[in-house]
Design brief:
The chain is an alpha/beta fold. The protein is 40% helix and 18% strand. Belongs to the glycosyltransferase 2 family.
């Protein structure tokens, strides 16, 4: 933090062609959130605005005074609900860049995103290159993420983009005029952590343009384990959400069933020798509960709220 008290727009060195708002949905992780907000200050292209949506006033308490120009809002708890609140609050902008509160962007992240959307009007959703992802392990420390990005930045970044099936929800940029014109929003039937909400939203946006990965928009996903949903709830979602997206038509049967079966098999195989940072027994119980609900004809993503 530079300590000058200047707001986001005052730190911008020129008026950019696109108006970018960074949206952050958060719950119960104020220290992690504060580190991300610091990283946004060192972007080579400063955001025009930053909107933080908490699930309670405590999630955003004191943040606005510490970060002048920041807008804090609250909504009911749930990633899809909070992201929809951000979409409504940021409707006047050109791009909304959703970042998880534990995503650490490289300094040129927003600049790379802006360049892609400026030069390729057919792109409607973009996602960055995740250099390291702590979600696949015990999680990464913030300082380790900075070292990883520093080492990664020593190589010459490319300006390549490639078409992808969906954005990765920890960092995804969305062209807002498409959202406004089509009345799109995140599906609130996917509650809490909203597993696969990124796939669902991306595939609906794909009807109107390209979904791409932007190589120069690089970052590290810490994969912080605090404030995530319980193992049992996640296990239920690992079955219910893919099947829901198949019925909805926003995820192919092959991809959804692959995601579901891979997680169920992993939970079965590792239940008796689980990783210390994963509740395999809880996830397996959630898997079994969802399969029983499927057989009983009452499977729904929202049933996770009763677990």
């Amino acid at each position: 933090m530079n300590g000058t008290g200047s707001n986001w727009s005052e730190e911008r060195v020129h008026h950019p062609p696109l108006r970018i708002v960074v949206g952050i949905a958060t719950s119960g992780r104020p220290l992690i959130l504060a580190r991300l907000l610091e990283r946004l200050r060192v972007q080579t292209r400063i955001a025009d605005a930053v909107i933080v949506c908490g699930a309670s006033p405590a999630d955003v308490s004191g943040i606005e005074s510490a970060h002048p120009g920041l807008r804090c809002i609250t909504s009911d708890r749930g990633l899809t609900i909070q992201r929809n609140a951000i979409l409504r609050a940021g409707a006047a902008f050109d791009l909304v860049v959703f970042l998880d509160d534990d995503f650490v962007p490289c300094p040129g992240y927003l600049q790379a995103v802006e360049r892609t959307f400026m030069t390729r009007p057919d792109v409607v959703v973009g996602t960055g290159h995740v250099v390291a992802d702590g979600i696949r392990g015990p999680g990464l420390a913030f300082e380790d993420a900075l070292k990883t990005l520093q080492q990664d930045g020593q190589a010459e970044p490319t300006r390549e983009i490639e078409n992808v099936y969906s954005a990765y929800g920890c960092n995804m940029a969305i062209r807002i005029d498409v959202v406004r014109a089509r009345g799109l929003e995140f599906d609130e039937t996917l509650p809490l952590y909203g597993w696969l909400e990124d796939v669902d939203f991306s595939r609906r946006m794909a009807a109107y343009g390209r979904i791409v990965k932007i190589d120069a928009a690089r970052g590290v996903h810490l994969g912080v384990k605090s404030s995530r949903q319980s193992g049992r709830r996640l296990g239920y979602s690992q079955v219910s959400n893919p099947l829901y997206l198949i019925r909805k038509g926003t995820c192919s049967s092959s991809k959804a069933l692959k995601l579901m079966s891979r997680n169920v098999v992993a939970n079965v195989a590792k239940t008796f020798r689980p990783e210390p940072y994963i509740d395999r027994a809880g996830r397996l119980k959630g898997n079994i509960r969802a399969l029983l609900d499927l057989l009983a004809g009452r499977l729904s993503p929202k049933r996770v709220l009763s677990l």
